[in-house]
């Protein structure tokens, strides 16, 4: 699942990495193409829209966790999806490289993975743990 609002966040990370020289223009262009093919246009990701109710519910997270409005909306959405998945005996793993969002999500009881800091072994452990439900 991917929150439509989060797609802009991903693209902004690509832009920052290109602008600070972490990735080349060619890598940036390829990342955008891959993101579009795999996520935006891909069949494997369910896109979830943000509605007004979710935005209003997210306001509490701004103050409680010192989040910006976008991250608060992402957190509120993740909490709602996680609750739905728990009812189906499944779990959500929030994927983010935003340390503040990860801290807030963990404080709210969500499983998180930071692709810039966590390893493939960390991901495997989360997935294996998830499969053991």
Account of the protein in words:
This protein has 133 residues and is mostly helical. Helix content is 65%, strand content 8%. It is built from six helices and four strands; from the N terminus they run E-H-H-E-H-H-E-H-E-H. It has a two-stranded parallel sheet. Helix 5 (99-107) links the parallel strand 3 and strand 4. The protein is globular and about 40 Å long. The mean pLDDT is 91.
3D shape: globular
Question: Helical amount among residues, as a percent range?
Answer: 55-70%
Tell me the β content: 5-15%
Count structural domains: 2
Using only C-alpha atoms, the radius of gyration works out to 15 Å
- Provide a count of the helices: 6
- Unreliable residue stretches: none
Helix-strand sequence: EHHEHHEHEH
How many E strands? Answer: 4
Mean pLDDT, rounded to whole units? 91
What separation lies between the terminal Cα atoms?
20 Å
Main-sheet strand order equals 1-2
Structural class by secondary-structure content:
mainly alpha
> Tell me about the biggest sheet?
2 strands, parallel
Q: Can you give keywords for this protein?
A:
133 residues, mainly alpha, 2 domains, 4 strands, 65% helix, 8% strand
Question: How is the secondary structure organized here?
Answer:
Layout: E1 2-3, H1 4-19, H2 25-40, E2 47-48, H3 52-65, H4 69-87, E3 93-95, H5 99-107, E4 111-113, H6 120-131
Parallel strand pairs: 1-2, 3-4
Short description:
By secondary structure, the protein is mainly alpha-helical.
């Amino acid at each position: 699942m991917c929150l439509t609002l989060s797609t802009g966040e991903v693209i902004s990370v690509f832009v920052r990495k290109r602008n600070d020289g972490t990735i080349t223009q060619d890598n940036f262009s390829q990342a955008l193409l891959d993101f579009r093919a795999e996520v935006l246009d891909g069949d494997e990701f369910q896109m979830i829209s943000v509605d007004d109710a979710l935005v209003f519910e997210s306001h509490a997270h701004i103050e409680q966790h010192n989040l910006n409005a976008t991250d608060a909306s992402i957190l509120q959405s993740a909490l709602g999806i996680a609750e739905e998945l728990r009812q189906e005996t499944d779990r959500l793993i929030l994927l983010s490289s935003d340390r503040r969002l990860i801290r807030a999500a963990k404080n709210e009881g969500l499983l998180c993975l930071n692709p810039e800091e966590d390893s493939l072994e960390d991901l495997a452990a989360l997935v294996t743990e998830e499969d053991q439900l």
